[in-house]
Structure prediction request, 842 residues.
Amino acid sequence: MDSLLAEQEVRPCAVLTLRWLARHAGIERGLCAVVENESARLVGLTGLGLSLSSVDAFSLELNDRMHPLVVALAASEPVSFPGAGPAGPSEPNAGQGMRQPLDTPLGAEPFVAVPLAGPGESGDIGPGLLLLAGMDAAVEEDVRWAAEVLGARLQSLWFKRSQVDERRYKREQSWLFGVINAVTDPILLTDSEGRILVANGSAEMLLTADDQKSEGRRRAVALNNMLFSASIFTSSSGGGPTRHELLLVDPTEGQDLLFEVMSTPVKIRVGETGTVSVLRNVTDLRRATDEIEENYRRLRIAEAETRAERDRLDLILNSALDPILVTDPSGNIVLMNPPAERMFTVDQDGKSAEAERRVRANDAVFTSFMSGLYASQSLRWRGELSLIDPKTGATVPVEAISGKVLSKHGEDTAVVTILHDLTEAVEKQHLYEQVKRHSEELREKVREATAELAEQNELLRRQAFQLEQASAAKSQFLANVSHELRTPLNAIIGYTHLLLEGVSGELNRPQTEKLGRMESNARHLLSIINDLLDLARIESGKMPVQLERVVLQELIDEVMTEVEPLIDGTKLSVTRNISPEVPEIHTDRQKVKQIVLNLLSNALKFTPHGSVSIRLDYEPGKEWISVAVADTGIGISEDNQKTIFEAFQQADSSYARRTGGTGLGLTICRRLASILDGQITLVSKLGEGSTFTLVLPRQSRAS
Amino acid sequence: MSDPQQTDSTDPASPLVLVVDDVAHGREIFAEYLEFRGFRVATAADGLEALDKAFELLPDIILMDLSLPQLDGWEATKRLKGDDRTRTIPIIALTAHALASAHDKAMAAGCDSVVTKPCIPRDLEAEVRRQLAARSERS
Prediction:
């Protein structure tokens, strides 16, 4: 144990002690744990027969005062721990209530905890604890002695070292602060909560401000702290150093400052990692970079604009059909478009002595024109030149227009000349004259045609007017004729009647018969006159129409009553067939009655035997109603069906004479039907009978 | 001859008919027939004469032709119907005009009915009797 006193370091002392115990007290395995004041823990220092890592891992909170080992540390006697094995506790008074083995590198083995005695007052805990397994009870005194020696030695070593350390620590700390304060970049150490542990002067400038500082500065500092903490938390994801940008505020100047922050994690104490952040001010660097980028961008744009401008100019020049030349103030051609090149340069393909001569001639003409411009002092110059096409030798008359291009200071910089080919203009003029002449001719023809058309229109208008007048005259004439015919007819009918009535005395039988024939012919003549008058009125459009609600069933009844005398004279079977619920229609009652009466009279007249039927049909929902009159009479041949509705067309004229028809009835019927927006159709077969059908709209629009 | 309506045309109680027509045979036919049928008959050949006769004789009924010289039938009718002495005398227009417009004009002038010529004298007599009956019903 003498060597223990020679040893100046803590750990070797502990190693020597454990080895001595192994030799003298038969200890198989043991651990020396010491109190670490800064962290208030009991930590493993060295071991005997134990792995290094298990020794390092041993750590115990001294604040946990109820812990058996903490209790053992404060005890003055060694304390036995029975372990978790099948062997019963050797010291029943110790480790009471222990059910679980204590977490020590010795595991489940029974051991004795021996406190290292210190020279301090009793009740104070010693500098450490020996945990010894396999100890022989007989050598307990030796163990106590070794623990006392080691405890005293450790205490003395720590005291000495703490004084030395304190001095060195302070010196080194001042060096360190000198170093980090000398760095102009802000440097900080923060704990895991983001609290600042160490900061150099530059960092303090940014992140700290006492109450004496201005309100604005304190607020800027608070803002910076917030920004900085946030940046640390977001960047401290990985284990290695990170780099990020951080925008802070200069608390004194108020400007924005851009920092590049280099964060490195460091271990600040057991189980806690802090962060060292070095902030580099890159505000100026960034501004400079931005400026360079902006300048570069502007340069690129300007370059592109220039190129586009140049391209546009080229495009304009090259797409111009007229030759364009640009000359410098000395008269040298500096720029030509393709049409100009054709006149003033020799084409490589058509190179010939002749072509070269012609180009020279053109050059001469152009130069002499330009000298006129320079001599004139004016800005624009115009002239007509006669050039020669270098390829063909043809003379090309051109109009040349030159304009001086002046610099800002009014100096001539260039002359732009445009040559306009007059050959084309001459041709165009010619063509224009031709087109104009043709157009004049065309216009003249159109005018003539229009005049002719107008004349014809006028003629037609006059004719229409004359026709209208003629039609009116005809109507008036017919009315007059009717009146003039009626007056003598009145005399004939009247006198005949007087005679037949015996006003002038009794008549014999042959006289009565003959007067009777005279009267019936006079009546026939009267009905012809009446029909003609009707027809005339229809054709002149003067037939008045009176629309009203008409119940066709009633109308047919009336007609049937009127033809009863006709039916009585025959043996015909006459039937009515009226479909139920035929609606009222809106039409001219008198005219419909005239039509139906006419059709029914005709059927009765032209049917020697058999039957005549009248049928009223209506299909619900339809807009049309039909009245059909069918007979089993003589019928009408196909040829006659085509003309039956024309005036004075009777299928059998001899029959008509017998029956007293005028030959105008159907014509009038069809016209009347048409006036009422209806129509009459005919189905017939010669010898078998006819069916005339009057179709009328429910609502006549006639006015 | 056996007609029950026939009366003696010389009987002052028989109705007096004024026949107005500018055409002689027109007057003659109806006058002769109506006398034959027992009426008393007076005639006039133009509108003015018709007015004179009407105011002078105050006939029971007037047959008025419309197309008349001096004063036409429409105008004559208007004057007769506008005068208190002749207002109630029925006037039958007797015309060869067949157009509805002529008829309407006659009715508008005040005629009691219109008969179109030619007409059978017997039919005319029937109309005369109908108008007389209508008048006696009114009075």
Summary: Chain A touches chain B through 25 residues (CB under 8 Å). The first helix of chain A runs from residue 2 to 6. The first strand of chain A starts at residue 29 and ends at 36. Chain A has four domains: 2-164, 183-281, 323-416, 544-697.
